[in-house]
Amino acid sequence: MPEAPTSSSASQRLRPVSGRHNPLLKDLRAVYAHGMLTEDGCYAIEGVRLMEEAIRSSVKFRAVFFSDAATGLAAASKDRLLQQIGHKVDTLLLPAKLFQETVTSESPQGVAALVYRKETSLGDALGAAQPPLLVVAAGLQDPGNLGTILRSAEAFGAGGVVLGEGTASVYNPKTVRATAGSIFRLPAIAAKLAEVIPQLRENGVRLFATSSHKGTPLDQARLAGPAAFFIGNEGAGLPRDLGPQMDEFVAIPQAKPVESLNAGIAASIILYEAARQRRSKPQAP
Q1: How far apart are CA 45 and CA 58, in angstroms?
Q2: Largest Cα–Cα separation, the chain
Q3: 77 and 164 assigned to the same domain
């Protein structure tokens, strides 16, 4: 049995890259600039914690990038990460300035990676929770809100998130960071809502939308059955054409001076209540 690589041998795998025209570096730069997938279906992650979450979730890596000025956690974790991702992954060492120009987050830790998207479908999301429980983002534009919703959806047992037209890209690096790793495990499906809604109804899923002050108070809504929660745009709310298609509007009780809740917070509260009701629902003998 071959011996595990030592720290020194792991570091020796790093390939120095000093030019901007390296193909892998171009792909990483494009993802940060546009928040979309590469041609071969990769998106970007950064920071030690997300790297470790990706490894724990058996995500397939395409390439890993280290800054030659990485300090603190990233530097201390470098050799361990290199050993865990395997020998077939490209590992590049970039000058600090080039890394910072490419990884344009506010406080990069000195390590980033391109990882392959996991293919999922609406059927996967419907089957992942029983009874089905989904969130549908309808024109949600803030990447942080979308990432929060994915994180809460996984935490409270939802089967997946559907990304309707006009919704931020789930592969935007800001969204990816905000998911705290849930993007690696939770189905997130971009789809046209006109096609999704009939499929939800065919599967007996009840359609709920949120309202600031009107609708069934959340603690009185029956959420233990098959459910899909539609979350609209942060400012404009749910698109007008979707309103008549909802089965029920749900309102989160709040103080009158408060106009509305942040979309990510509202979705999280509703998901928590749905999870609470499901735990409390009497089980069939």
Answers
A1: 14
A2: 68
A3: no
If asked whether residues 43 and 183 sit together in one domain, one would say: no
Task: Return the sign of the alpha-carbon dihedral for residues 204, 217, 141, 144.
Answer: negative
**Residue among 188, 48, 174 at smallest CA distance from 113:** 48
Q: Which of 86, 116, 146 is the last residue of a domain?
A: 116
CA angle 261, 168, 217 (to 5 degrees): 25
Report cis status (omega within 30 of 0) of the bond before 173. no
Nearest to 135 by CA among 111, 106, 101, 158: 158
Token pair, residue 11, equals 């570091």
Q: By C-alpha distance, which of 243, 261, 244 is closest to 252?
A: 261
Q: Is residue 1 part of a domain?
A: no
Question: What pLDDT was estimated at residue 211?
Answer: 78
Q: What is the CATH number of the domain that holds 21?
A: 3.30.1330.30
- Provide the residue range defining the domain that includes 153: 122-280
Q: How far apart are CA 216 and CA 246, in angstroms?
A: 13
Cα atoms in the 13 Å half-sphere on the side-chain side of 33: 9
**pLDDT in single tens digits along all 285 residues of the chain:** 344 444 445 556 788 888 888 999 999 999 999 999 999 999 999 998 999 999 999 999 999 999 888 655 566 677 888 888 877 899 999 998 999 999 987 767 789 999 999 999 999 999 999 999 999 999 999 999 999 999 999 999 999 999 999 999 999 999 999 999 999 999 999 999 999 999 999 999 999 998 776 889 999 999 999 999 999 987 778 898 999 999 999 998 887 777 778 899 999 999 999 999 999 865 443
Between helices 48-56 and 73-85, what is the axis angle to 10°? Answer: 20
**Token reading at 245:** 């298609």
Helices (H), 132-172: 143-155
